[in-house]
Amino acid sequence: MATGNGSGTGAVRAALWLVVAALAVRQVAAVPGRPPGQRLTEPETWTGPGGVLRVTGSLYDGGRFTGTPFAGLVLRPLARTAEQNLGVVWTFGSLLLVAALGVVAARALPGPVSRRTALLAAPVAIGLLMVSLPVRTALHLGQTSVLPVLLVLLGCFVVRGERAPGVLIGAAAALQPTVLLFALLLGLTGRRRTAVTGGVTFAGCTALAWAVLPGDSWAYWVHHVAGAGLGGDAAGLANQSLHGALLRSGLTGPAQVTLLLVSAAAVCVLGLRRAVRYAKDGQLLLAVAVTGCVAVAVSPTTWPYQLLWVLLAAAGRVGKRAADRRVWPVVVVLALTLPGTTLLPDIGVLHPVRDNVPLLAALAAACAVPFLPRASPYWNAPVPATYTAAAPPRRRRVASRPSLLLELLLIRVVYSAYAQIRLAATGGRGTAERHGRQIHALERWLRIDIEHWANRTVADLDRLRDFFGFYYSTFHFIVPLTILGVLYVRRPEDYRRARSTIGFATLFALVGFWLYPLAPPRLMPGLGFVDTVHGVQDFARPDYGGLTAVTNQYAAMPSLHFGWSLWCGAMIVLLAPRAWMKALGLLHPLITLCAIVATANHWVLDAVGGAAVVGLGFALARLLDGARRPGAAVVPGAAKPWDDRAYPAATVPVPRPPGGTVRSRIR
Asked: How far apart are CA 333 and CA 330, in angstroms?
């Protein structure tokens, strides 16, 4: 058994490293293929013929250069690099920095860790870094934002001694001034000599830049207030700092400055106190991440490529239940990987949250998230999932509810991905109409071509036309979401399978949209169909209202309108306790079938395709559910898994370095 587990872990590890290699190759190969103005825009701006590192004027003329004067001093030799080689060399070097950062972060995880975690941590960390928004932006722009993060991690976890770590952190602060907060962290955790060395190094590097570039240093530190006025608009969405959020809220002038200073001071005090506590608890990587999140929030400008600290906060453990343990890492990864428009719907009241998702994640990590201490009885032994005991072992299901936040996030992300793929899955109008003629001919051969009769009949009856139009436009989303909500509250063990079933069915449908673009009857010229929902259409320039630019009108096969309604009917028939509820459940797919045909939005065979993908979804969910091997089921009379007596605090000792300080652990 151990051999099998080891070989399985080895296979997963090899696959993860292959994914990392593919991401790296893709990134390196993408550089030569992009036009000169769209690749590594920052280095080209710095080192091109008129680049700020070549001209004799100020680095900050025009606001193109946003780094410190010391960064300009260090980067100036790049102006002599051959421009044709700069792209590949810069990208390859940046990828090496990302790989080194991932390896150091993986080895800095607080122990004890399992052998599986130790083997998989490095490729997982590097892969997440590569797909994250900060690294993608840094690689696209050619920014150096990975270097300060790596220098801090090297100073905290790799380099030994008292002075060398301080030199690394001081140099990082000279490149990114808010990193100087780490010197304060070192001082508060007992490493005063290292903290002083970091401060002296920062001052020395800054003084060197003042001596060589006095005008630029004055412009950066005084005129632009430590770079606050450089780069893009500080009120733009790209600036994910407290300063940017307050400007976006409409505050300006003394009120904004006062509120910024008060809130920044509060975040610094609370965040650094938490970081010190985690450092003394042996969670050094989390302490570094929390301090970095404080720097993200209080910096005058925090651009997307400077948000790596937030991703490191995923190392913290949150939640007593095993089902909740994954919520925080998933939230962090989604917030640092996907845009806010994907995570939250376009609703006015949610815009302040949607526009500040990375900042809110940083503030949560710095000030709010209740990370578990290592002395917690739940650190290595979270409350396990409970299983239904009424079914055979291979059919038992998880009886506890999954995290509501995680479910809502995943539903939103999956739906956004569905909408994007559906929009992209188009083969052109000609292909879609050719497939429409094929479907129409097949239905005539099968003698099921009732679409024209149904459409004309409904079009002539105003009340029936309005009813089917309303039903088609309204119940498609309301009924499935209602069923999922009821199951989540009342039947969590069935909710998981139901959610998986409709998810798999939608995935299969996307494959159909991609492989077989199909024009619905209402978009087939010459067949005499009437679009009873959108009105008479000009086939050269169809108008579907607000849907024209946001959905693919040729994604008709299979019909998810009918597929989702059939799923709803099946769920109600299988789980409803009363006969009249089951009857209503059967009515919904029947009325939906009439609606999609009568409004000329689908062919009859589209409904057959919708039924097929739902059947495949049920089959795959059943297969995966039967393959699960849950642990112990709930046994009457046994100790409840959430009983604190089952997890004595002494089972997870907190390792303390000699002398009661953390000096030997933060090297």
From this structure: 5
Mean pLDDT of 614-634: 67
CA dist 561 → 443, 457, 477, 479 (Å): 20, 21, 9, 11
**What is the mean predicted confidence (pLDDT) over 200-222?**
88
Q: CA nearest 530: which of 456, 436, 429, 602?
A: 456
In the prediction, which pLDDT does 639 show? 34
- Which residue matches tokens 């067949």? 527
Q: What share of the chain is helix, strand, coil (3-state, %, to 5)?
A: 70, 0, 30
Are 88 and 28 within 8 A, CB to CB? Answer: yes
Pairwise pLDDT comparison (430 vs 499), residue with the higher score: 499
Helix (H, G, I), strand (E, B) or coil at 321: strand
d(CA 262, CA 275): 20
Rounded Cα distance, 172 and 621, in Å:
50
Q: Is the pLDDT of residue 104 over 90?
A: yes
| CA–centroid distance for 230 within its chain | 28
Which tens digits make up the pLDDT trace of 544-582? 444 444 455 777 788 888 999 999 999 999 888 888 888
Residue 641 has pLDDT above 50, yes or no: no
- Tokens representing residue 612 in the block: 């097929």
**Cβ within 8 Å of residue 585, ≥6 positions away:** 568, 569, 570, 571, 572, 573, 576
For the segment 5-23, what is each residue's pLDDT rounded down to a tens digit? 566 778 888 888 998 888 8
Beta bridge partners of 321: 383
Q: CA 175 from chain center: how many Å?
A: 28
**Quick check: 499 and 567 in contact, CB under 8 A?**
no
Query: In whole numbers, what is the pLDDT of the chain averaged over residues?
Result: 79
Token pair recorded at residue 631: 């642990």
CA separation for the pair 552, 185 (Å, rounded): 53
In the chain, % of residues over pLDDT 90: 25
* Closest residue by Cα to residue 485 from 568, 398, 418, 413: 568
Residue pair 146/126 in contact by the 8 Å Cβ criterion: no
- Out of 495-499, 608-612, 621-625, the most confident range is 608-612
468: Cβ contacts below 8 Å, ≥ 6 apart: 458, 532, 594, 595, 598, 599
Encoded tokens for 124: 């997982």
Which of helix, strand or coil describes residue 383?
strand
| DSSP codes of every residue in 53-67 | TTSSS-TTGGG---S
Distance CA 252, CA 259 (A): 10
Residue 382: band (very low, low, confident or very high) from pLDDT cuts 50, 70, 90: confident
Computed on alpha carbons and rounded to an integer, the radius of gyration of the chain in Å comes to 29
Question: CA 596 → CA 384, 475, 477, 586, distances in Å?
Answer: 45, 12, 15, 16
Burial 277-291 (b: 16+ CB within 10 A, else e): bbbbbbbbbbbbbbb
